[in-house]
Design brief:
The protein is an alpha/beta fold. It has 2 domains: 15-222, Alpha-Beta Complex (2-enoyl-CoA Hydratase, Chain A, domain 1), CATH 3.90.226; 226-273, Lyase 2-enoyl-coa Hydratase, Chain  A, domain 2. Helix content is 44%, strand content 17%. The chain contains 11 helices and 11 strands. The strands form 2 sheets. The protein has a 7-stranded mixed sheet, with helices on both faces. The chain has a 4-stranded mixed sheet with strand order 5-7-9-10. α5 crosses α6 and α9 runs antiparallel to α10 (244-259). The protein is globular, with a radius of gyration of 19 Å.
């Protein structure tokens, strides 16, 4: 596979701020695209309790918001996400750490579970290392675009840990059992180019072009019929646990709904008129 380069022009639209409730997560809207940026660069964006709650809330809200058609998840600084922040950093930190570990196993509203259940497409703009919990978050995104300094760090065995948020389920399905076993058991850090070669990321671009490329891809998703995109993602997700016949039955049920929408009429009309469609989500 070859490295992709970003287009010369950036995506159109003005970024507007979204209140996430914490400085540790930056939220911005670019039209129908929500950009969420993990913002603890001094800790390589390790996930704190406030960040975890804010991220879950923003993802869940985006999935319900008809004005949001795609989400980008990225990080500030040199790292995407170094995992859960379990390092003592002051008085009372041990108690906070133990509480966070307990909460980590209540996954009903945690970012990984919310990400898995989202119908809105999510793009990971991998701006640096993704390790542990951070690697699981990246794997749970639908599409991954890496900057040249992006990398996946499958190093849990070097910390007497395991990929607790679904990595052992996700990675073999993405790259095969043998390659996943090699990365996990050897505790390997995989650079951006190798990530692309083995199918972990869909494109590698210059670091300075990463967010522009992610925004461009997200905007290309956002102009398509949102109900069709979201139904397709849901069927892909559910199909992982279904046989062929069951999946086809479910597809036909969704198709019947899509046929009855105004967006279906708009899609056909735009095709006949040889113009770009203007989908409303209705």
């Amino acid at each position: 596979m070859t490295t992709e380069t970003a287009p010369a022009e950036t995506t159109s639209g003005t970024l507007t701020s979204v209140d996430t409730g914490t400085d540790e997560l930056i939220g911005e809207r670019d039209g129908a695209v929500l950009i969420l940026t993990l913002n603890r660069p001094d800790r390589m964006n390790a996930i704190s309790t406030p960040m975890m709650g804010a991220l879950s809330n923003q993802l869940a809200a985006a999935n319900k918001d008809p004005e949001v058609r795609a989400v980008i998840l990225t990080g500030t600084g040199r790292g995407f996400c170094a995992g859960l922040d379990l390092v003592d950093s002051g008085p009372g930190a041990r108690d906070a750490r133990e509480k966070q570990v307990v909460q980590m196993f209540d996954l009903r509203d945690s970012p990984p579970t919310v990400l898995w259940n989202m119908d809105k497409p999510v793009i990971c703009a991998l701006n640096g290392a993704a390790a542990g919990y951070g690697m699981d978050l990246a794997l749970l995104c639908d599409i991954r675009i890496a900057g040249e300094s992006g990398r996946m760090a499958a190093v849990t065995a070097k910390r007497n840990l395991l990929p607790e948020s679904g990595g052992t389920w996700l990675l073999p399905r993405l790259i095969g059992w043998g390659k996943a076993a090699e990365l996990f058991f050897r505790g390997r850090v995989v650079g951006a180019q190798e990530c692309q070669e083995i199918g972990l990321v869909q494109a590698v671009v210059a670091d300075e072009d990463l967010l522009d490329t992610a925004r461009l891809w997200a905007q290309e998703i956002a102009v398509n019929a949102p109900a069709a995109v979201q139904a397709t993602k849901r069927m892909m997700r559910q199909g992982l646990g279904e046989n062929y016949e069951t999946t086809v039955d479910h597809l036909m049920l969704h198709l019947k709904v899509l046929f009855g929408m105004d967006d279906f009429k708009e899609g056909v009309s735009a095709f006949m008129d040889r113009r770009e469609p203007d989908f409303t989500g209705r």
